[in-house]
Amino acid sequence: MKKVILILVFAIILKPVFPVIEYVTNYDYIAKVLCVNKAEPKLECNGKCHLIKELAKASESEKPIHSNKKDNSRQEVEILFFQDLITLVATQFFFHSKTTIGDNYANLYFHTVSCSVFHPPAKIA
């Protein structure tokens, strides 16, 4: 699965290079058949015009669809309904239990308040 994903990622990254690879592999055919300027040997085009067209197609296909439209981030909203918010008054209720702890209760929790910082024991050489 990782190999398939890796191949797809490389294909997406190298997509603009595919027309150049096609031009290099089919150089003779493109220079003799597909070249627009084959009637004018002075230009020494040798199919570069075809390569430029293919690169333009590839770059055009990569552009987003909405690139020619302006993005208006400003929007107007018309308020059709308005209602004042009702303020709620919250009251707190405290419930006190009247049960008392018996005489046999003993608080066994003990802690010392220390402001010193713990230092581990020194290493003995």
Structure description:
The chain is mainly alpha-helical and 125 residues long. It contains 4 helices and no strands. The protein has helices at 2-13, 18-25, 27-34, 48-62. The protein is elongated and about 115 Å long.
Key features?
single chain, 4 helices
End-to-end C-alpha gap? 56 Å
Outline: elongated
Spell out the helices and strands N to C.
HHHH
Number of helices: 4
Q: How would you summarize the topology of this molecule?
A:
Blueprint: H1 2-13, H2 18-25, H3 27-34, H4 48-62
Care to give the gist of this entry?
This protein is mostly helical and 125 residues long.
